[in-house]
Each structure stands twice: as C-alpha cells, then as structure tokens.
Design brief:
By secondary structure, the protein is an all-alpha fold. The chain contains six helices and no strands. The longest helix has about 30 residues. The two termini are about 20 Å apart.
Amino acid sequence: MNPDSEYKSELWLQRMEKIYEDYSAEAWEYERRRKPTDGLLGMKGGPADDPSHDRFAKALGDCLAEFAAAAPDSASVRAVLERLYAPPDKGAVTQSAYWMLIAVQGLQTGLIDSLAGEDARALCERYAGDYPRWQRLPVQKKIFAALKAKAK
C-alpha cells in the first residue's frame, strides 16, 4: 500500500467508523427507551421498527458507493472491506443491530472486483475463519463465493 492510498483509506475508514458509532449509540438509546411490551406478539414498536436501522444502511451504503466511485486501489478496498466484514461484537451492540451489521455486508459486493488476487485471498481466508460455513447467512455465502472466485 503506498502512503497516499493508505491516507485515503484511513479517511474512508474514519468515516465508516463514525457511521457505525452513531448507529450503535442510536440503537442503544432506542433499547433504553423502549417498553418491554414493544413489539410483543408482532405489534408495532419492536426493535425492527427502529428507524435507525434504515438510516444506518443508507448512510453506510452512500459512503461505500462514494468510496467505489473514487476508484480506490486494491489495498484501500481490502482495508474498507475488512472493516465492513468484521464480525460484530455481540456484547457491544443490541441484538437487532447485530443482525443489521451482518446484513449490510452485502451493500457493496461490487468492490470485490477491485481487489487484487492476493488481497482477495487474504480477505477470503479471514472471512472463512470469522464466519464458518455452517453459520453463514445467504448474503455471507454470496460474499464468500465472490471472494473465493476473485482469489483464484
């Protein structure tokens, strides 16, 4: 990674981290305010109705789209995807936020095409270790397959 691309990827990572932090704070605030009966028996007001999920997905999607439009090099893409694909810490986020952090991994599978083979291999190995085959959700299976194909 050249110093210029390292600097640029660091800026994108900082921007992503702010989006993640804001989302986590909103999700915890929602959990703190909600009543124990909210969302019970399928009624409105449950964690799935929290609008912070949609705001987070949009903000992160917009950030990743801008990143992709900047035509980043493979090392920068790898750094951003490593953050995007990092396993959520179950103790640090609400349960509903945990599943959203998994779901947003599929926002920019097109970035995988920008990876060099060695970066794709490293990401593929890490992804396989972080998300065992039998635990992968459909979006994660697509991501793994794309990483594996690019790594060849």
